[in-house]
Amino acid sequence: ASTEAVVSTQSTGYETERLIQKLTALDIDTHNVVVNQVVYPDKDKEGTVACGLCGARAKMQTKYLEQICDLYEDFHVIKMPQMPCEVKGVQMLRKFGGYLQSPPDMKTNSVHDLVKDL
User: Fold this and answer.
1) What value does the mean pLDDT of the chain take?
2) Most exposed: 8, 10, 27, 35, by fewest CB within 10 Å?
């Protein structure tokens, strides 16, 4: 039996790279990277970011996300959105966990859309 690790990060590529190198040296397969707490700021009807702080955070993250995508172009990289509330309870955990297999389209959804039925 082989072992596979799923690496989770909060958008800092260098620490993730060291971890993947160490796991690879131990012959542990790593083909999945989960980037947690990615900010997708709400926009108004004109497409302007509604929150300046959220826009600034998203802009900072863009550099790190690009690095991760470049470093791990052969990996399955999943970007998990920063949720507007704490992810807890069975129903919410199942829904959020489902995003690992089928990530939400954040170009057409806001994070508020992701939790409105809960």
Assistant:
1) 85
2) 27
